[in-house]
């Protein structure tokens, strides 16, 4: 029996930060330099007078670099968009938007070929065609890869090279080492919610001509900020993945959807209980080539769990591993690649082979200790088929978005394709609206209400709460306890004093920690509300799928700062 709902959490609508000391203007501001951000910037550069591309680190530091497995597209004549669509819908566990998936699979092959035209070099078969392999949840060989297991790095290299080639073009400006703080919005509407997006505030870390907090004004803002990995204690995401885009969009009045669906990659290198930060991923493609999962007694267990065994969807494999760990009292399982041969492993998985060797593991002769860790966020900022969010002028593409493609669980290697397809669509839509004058520049106005700042010293505390509450396996009691613990974290560190001193001052580590705290709160609240198990959301107290929950759970901030939840059919 479900318990009465808890009081909705309250979150601030802006970060505590100094006022902007400088301003730059563009037609479109793109935030992020993974496949989605770089693609959007390249598409916009030839279509609008001026584009600003903002990235948190360097251009080549986006999450795309870390994508090992590949990019999925029906490129083989024996494959079809219809088959790709069906595999995606199956993985999404009833919550995909079929219209979004159809866009993905029908436009995907053309976008991949355009990526090749932009310089990306994929591995090829002896006949010269792109070599295709298979990963979990796919019933056909449709995964294109580069450098064996360095697909993301190759795609990033090609797109960054395209940006660098036009960097002196007056129609594009790149600002690196810049953390976006908040989305700027215009005058509120009659309902009191923020108005149209009209730029961002950002903090540049002492690089180039711009330094400190500034404002980047634009007719459109494209969020392509990636995922939320650092919300958790252990993740395969880079250190920059602190949920900045999702938190900024929420504060600006945008609707979030499916935030409770978090993909935990089943096979992340396990090196002890002290693991934290970005962890080494052992790609799905390794199991696609025939690697087996064994428990610590040497028993292969996946054939008894799912007809596709080790190639079952990621949520199925991750949940099976966690349950096996509980049964055996172990903290890891084994991935067995020994039968695949040393030469094949070195050639097919050079990056993984090298990283495992650096940890003292020879994957050709030794078992690999693995356990699930946070990997991908299936939900995000709700966006339509051209990337538009619920806030006029604000677009979201890539992992930060909830496009409807992934539903409750992302199909392996669909993420790079999603970023590519929907960034292209968003850029072309923005360009058309700039051209016809329907996207005017709006003057920003301050949003009312309190500011928030969480001390960086609280980050480990928040990550521990998120890992214990909305982790791989969840329960109502655990989620309620997590909300209470999150509510106890001080969010006024800039104004709270201890012996006459502030707990913290506004700076990068504190802003990131505030974003982590807000995302963790929204995620935990949504996970508590969804009283069923589906895809990347597993409740031990509601272990079955419930058709009454075949819907998208939307979250937004009310004018007084409360998280509001609404139920929306999935497409």
From TrEMBL:
It is found in: Cytoplasm. Its main location: cytoplasm. Keywords: FAD, Flavoprotein, Oxidoreductase, Pyridine nucleotide biosynthesis. Pfam families: FAD_binding_2, Succ_DH_flav_C. Pathway: Cofactor biosynthesis; NAD(+) biosynthesis; iminoaspartate from L-aspartate (oxidase route): step 1/1. Catalyzes the oxidation of L-aspartate to iminoaspartate, the first step in the de novo biosynthesis of NAD(+). Belongs to the FAD-dependent oxidoreductase 2 family. NadB subfamily. This is L-aspartate oxidase. It comes from Cellulomonas edaphi.
């Amino acid at each position: 029996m479900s318990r009465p709902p808890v009081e909705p959490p309250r979150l601030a609508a802006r970060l505590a930060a100094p006022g902007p000391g400088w301003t730059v203007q563009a037609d479109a501001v793109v935030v992020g330099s993974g496949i989605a951000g770089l693609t959007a910037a390249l598409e916009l550069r030839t279509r609008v007078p001026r584009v600003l591309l903002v990235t948190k680190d360097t251009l080549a530091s986006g999450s795309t670099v870390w994508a090992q497995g590949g990019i999925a597209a029906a490129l083989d004549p024996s494959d079809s968009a219809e088959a790709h669509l069906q595999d995606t819908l199956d993985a999404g566990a009833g919550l995909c938007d079929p219209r979004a998936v159809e866009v993905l699979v029908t436009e995907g092959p053309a976008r991949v070929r355009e990526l090749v035209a932009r310089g990306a070099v994929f591995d090829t078969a002896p006949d010269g065609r792109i070599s295709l392999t298979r990963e979990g949840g796919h019933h056909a060989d449709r995964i294109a890869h580069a450098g064996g297991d360095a697909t993301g790095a190759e795609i990033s290299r090609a797109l960054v090279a395209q940006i660098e080639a036009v960097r002196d073009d007056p129609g594009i400006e790149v600002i690196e080492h810049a953390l976006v703080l908040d989305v700027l919005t215009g005058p509120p509407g009659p309902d009191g919610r923020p108005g149209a997006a009209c730029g961002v505030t950002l903090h540049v870390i002492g690089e180039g001509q711009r330094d400190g907090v500034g404002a980047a004004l634009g007719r459109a803002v494209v969020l392509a900020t990636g995922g939320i990995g650092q919300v958790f204690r252990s993740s395969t995401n880079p250190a920059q993945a602190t949920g900045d885009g999702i938190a900024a969009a929420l504060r600006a009045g945008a609707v979030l959807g499916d935030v409770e669906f978090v993909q935990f990659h089943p096979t992340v290198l396990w090196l002890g209980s002290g693991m934290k930060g970005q962890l080494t991923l052992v790609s799905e493609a390794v199991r696609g080539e025939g690697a087996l999962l064994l428990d610590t007694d040497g028993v292969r267990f996946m054939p008894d769990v799912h007809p596709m065994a080790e190639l079952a969807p990621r949520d199925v494999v991750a949940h099976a591993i966690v349950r096996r760990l509980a049964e055996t009292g172990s903290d890891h399982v084994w991935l067995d690649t020994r039968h695949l041969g040393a030469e094949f492993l070195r050639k097919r998985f050079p990056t993984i082979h090298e990283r495992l060797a650096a940890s003292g593991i020879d994957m050709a002769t030794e078992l690999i200790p693995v356990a699930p860790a946070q990997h991908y966020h299936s939900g995000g900022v709700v966006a339509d088929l051209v990337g538009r969010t619920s806030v006029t002028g604000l677009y979201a593409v890539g992992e930060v978005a909830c496009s409807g493609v992934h539903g409750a669980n992302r199909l392996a290697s669909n993420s790079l394709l999603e970023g590519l397809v929907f960034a292209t669509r968003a850029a072309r839509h923005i360009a058309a609206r700039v051209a016809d004058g329907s996207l005017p520049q709006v003057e920003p106005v301050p949003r009312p209400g309190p500011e928030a700042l969480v001390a960086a010293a609280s980050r480990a505390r928040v990550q521990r709460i998120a890992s214990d509450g909305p982790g791989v396996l969840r329960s109502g009691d655990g989620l309620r306890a997590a909300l209470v613990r999150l509510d106890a974290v001080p969010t006024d560190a800039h104004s709270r004093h201890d012996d006459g001193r502030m707990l913290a001052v506004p700076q990068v580590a504190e802003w990131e920690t505030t974003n982590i705290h807000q995302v963790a709160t929204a995620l935990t609240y949504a996970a508590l509300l969804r009283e069923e198990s589906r895809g990347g959301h597993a409740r031990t107290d509601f272990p079955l799928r419930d058709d009454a929950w075949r819907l998208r759970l939307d979250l937004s901030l009310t004018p007084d700062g409360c998280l509001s939840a609404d139920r929306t059919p999935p497409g």
